[in-house]
Amino acid sequence: MTSSIPGFFQGTEMPDSGWWEALWPDPAAVLSATGIKPGMEVIDLCCGDGWFTLPIARLARHVVAIDIDAELLDVTRGRLTESGMKNFDLVAGNAYELASLISRPVDFVFMANAFHGVPDRPRLARAVREALAPGGRFAVVNWHQQPREKTMVLGEPRGPRTELRLSPEQTIADAEAGGLRFAELVEVPPYHYGAVFEPAE
User: Fold this and answer.
1) How far, in Å, CA of 164 to CA of 117, rounded?
2) How many CB atoms lie within 10 A of CB 57?
3) Are 73 and 39 within 8 A, CB to CB?
4) Closest Cα partner for 130 from 171, 110, 89, 100?
5) What are the structural domains of the chain?
6) Potential cystine with 170: which of 2, 59, 158, 166 (Cβ 3.0-4.6 Å)?
7) pTM of the full predicted structure?
8) Coil, strand, or helix at residue 81?
């Protein structure tokens, strides 16, 4: 699990075991806040170790977990199979090539803690737009643009470097530059927001 993989997005390494759980003890609530509903076809983009993939699988009709790191996908597979989930596919690949990594358009693309590290965010937004079915939505969960020393988890500063963090306005501008339309902004306590988009007409 290394950031030396070609195409790996900057500042998106998985954290030490345990603090995801401390930060988001109820990941299903995050999914609900961003608009994932029962029966949807969902992509968990840059899924990491599957912390959100499992609750998505419990809610969705089907989830495709995509990450560039095959080792992290192995962790995700273990998390899902140990919980008895079968309604998932795991795909190792570059997020820019999203549309070519899936077999059919989806209702929802979920991306947590990775958009800030994407070098060409409008390009990624275009890739997501191509992967969405009519009426589909894309949720970006980002750290608020606070100094890193103020985002404490388990007594230590956590999250990407301060200079990598994006304001909601920056996130919205980059996504709209890729052909998406801003739909809503939701708070994801304690340190995140969720920006939700749909394809522009």
Assistant:
1) 7
2) 24
3) no
4) 100
5) 29-190 (3.40.50.150)
6) 166
7) 0.92
8) helix
